[in-house]
Design goal:
six-stranded mixed β-sheet, single chain, transmembrane, 332 residues, 56% helix, Put_HupE_UreJ, signal, 10 helices, HupE/UreJ family protein, two-stranded antiparallel ribbon
């Protein structure tokens, strides 16, 4: 590849990033979708009211029993009776495998715990955890795997958190300073994530999401600021403050996903571990691309500036959109 081609590629990267992250209209081809909800009945441990809804009349008529439940659970009309042991085991939708249908599975317990998953043809089953304390650490393996994966998925698909990590990596110079800033961010978002999950701290989601978007704008602004600033002198202090906000965003997503009723601390811990793995992977990729750009004589400073403008523009759009949503939402 010629040097001119490399330069063109470098300048196209910010545009490609902006296009890929921009909101797009829904595809015109509508796939079948369905929902299965299980709500624990008041005053009856282990007994759940089952509701099955499907967009396709074929699914509604042919699947009177849409799922295979754990052996201890028995169907009783519109109810699922799992006895004193509760709903524990694997819920499977064998008919779903290989199809393009998606099924949202929602389980709600009387305690207020809630578990939400979308099952697809490539992943048609869901483990519902009921690991006894006598099983020890080895018994927690399903939670370790599942919630670590969810944490990694969240950081890689949560574009606002992803852009903040990229902007932070571009802002902070020096390995030790970057490690310190990332550590402060980790400690901060771990604190608010735990406080929100355990109900010790509650804030409405729209203002939090707007503040997260604004934090990306600010860090992008610091990346192109020619003069010295607090963010450059003490990046750990700035990342700690923003980490508190991002932790609340993580908590909102985790609570939407749901936590296993009897193993909240373990699920919280390994979700956080997954988030950290995702963050470190993103940082390593950004550093590697920067070094590659330097070796290829691609003028990394110009590439970085274009990338920062693209990220800042996208975050500015999110900020306006979220501020309007916060100001015009219900109860305002």
């Amino acid at each position: 590849m010629t040097r001119l081609s490399l330069h063109r590629l470098a300048w196209s990267l910010p545009l490609l990033l902006a296009v890929s992250l921009a909101p797009t209209p829904a595809a015109g081809h509508e796939l079948n979708s369905a929902s299965l909800s299980l709500t624990e009945v008041e005053g009856q441990d282990g007994r759940f009211l089952m509701r099955w809804e499907a967009s396709s009349s074929t699914l509604r008529s042919e699947l009177a029993t849409p799922a295979v439940f754990p052996p201890a659970c028995k169907l009783d009309g519109a109810f699922l009776d799992c006895g004193d042991a509760g709903l524990v085991g694997t819920i499977e939708l064998p008919w779903l495998e290989g199809t393009e249908t998606s099924v949202m599975l929602v389980i709600e317990w009387r305690s207020g715990s809630r578990l939400v998953r979308v099952l697809t043809g490539s992943d048609p089953s869901l483990p519902v955890y009921g690991i006894p304390s006598s099983a020890g650490l080895r018994g927690l393996r399903p939670i370790v795997v599942d919630y670590t994966r969810l944490g990694v998925d969240h950081i890689l698909t949560g574009f606002d958190h992803l852009l903040f990590v990229v902007a932070l990596t571009l802002l902070v110079r020096g390995g030790r300073r970057l490690i310190g800033a990332v550590t402060a961010f980790t400690v901060a978002h771990s604190l608010t994530l735990a406080c929100a999950v355990f109900g010790w701290l509650t804030l409405p989601a729209p203002p939090v999401e707007a503040a997260i978007a604004l934090s990306i704008v600010l860090v992008c602004g610091e990346c192109i600021r020619p003069t010295d600033s607090l963010a450059r002198r003490a990046p750990w202090a700035v990342t700690f403050a923003f980490g508190l906000l991002h932790g609340l965003g993580f908590a909102s997503s985790l609570l939407d996903i749901g936590l296993p009723e009897r193993h909240v601390p373990a699920a919280l811990l390994f979700f956080n571990v997954g988030v950290e793995i995702g963050q470190l992977g993103v940082i390593a990729l950004v550093v590697a691309l920067h070094l590659l750009a330097e070796r290829a004589s691609m003028q990394p400073a110009k590439v970085q500036r274009g990338l920062v403008y693209a990220m800042g523009g996208m975050a500015g759009y999110w900020s306006i959109e979220r501020i309007v949503a916060a100001l015009t939402g219900p109860g305002v």
